[in-house]
Amino acid sequence: MRLVIQRVQSANVSVADKVVGKIGQGLTLLVGIEDADIEEDALWLVKKVTQLRIFDDEDGVMNKSVEDINGELLAISQFTLLAKTKKGNRPSYIKAASPEKAAALFNFFVQKLSERLEKEVPKGRFGEHMVINQVNDGPVTILIDTKNKE
């Protein structure tokens, strides 16, 4: 699984001009799922995302997690994170999971995030054209790939 994590002051995602998920201060998670990804990858990411210390403490040092600040998460599935661009000009998505597998693992990931934070984690609509509006904070953008855990 590959994540782009962006610290935000606020964010929302719309489908067909209707907001389907929104948050205040927290993190927007763009989530790409490979065919080789499994639930263990999602569980590892849940812990990593919720404990990542990228929010400022009282001294202005990034020393707090989204859990520490009681922040929110917005999860959006994005298979284009798996684009291979080495050859030619048209990205290849050959390593992306099938829509059925990706949807199941994405929903599992969001469910486990919700359980960990003890609140609903809003999400985009899998497989739909979405418009994301967010106010980046920092900006702070982190890339995490479960294939590079060590």
How would you describe the overall organization of this protein?
This protein is an alpha+beta fold and 150 residues long. The protein has one domain (2-148): 3-Layer(bba) Sandwich (D-tyrosyl-trna(Tyr) Deacylase, Chain: A), CATH 3.50.80. The chain is 21% helix and 35% strand. It contains two helices and seven strands. Strands 1, 2, 3, 6 and 7 form a five-stranded mixed beta sheet that branches. The longest helix has 19 residues, at 99-117. The protein is globular. The chain starts with a strand and ends in a 5-residue tail after the last strand. It comes from Salinivirga cyanobacteriivorans. This is D-aminoacyl-tRNA deacylase. It catalyses: a D-aminoacyl-tRNA + H2O = a tRNA + a D-alpha-amino acid + H(+); glycyl-tRNA(Ala) + H2O = tRNA(Ala) + glycine + H(+). Pfam families: Tyr_Deacylase.
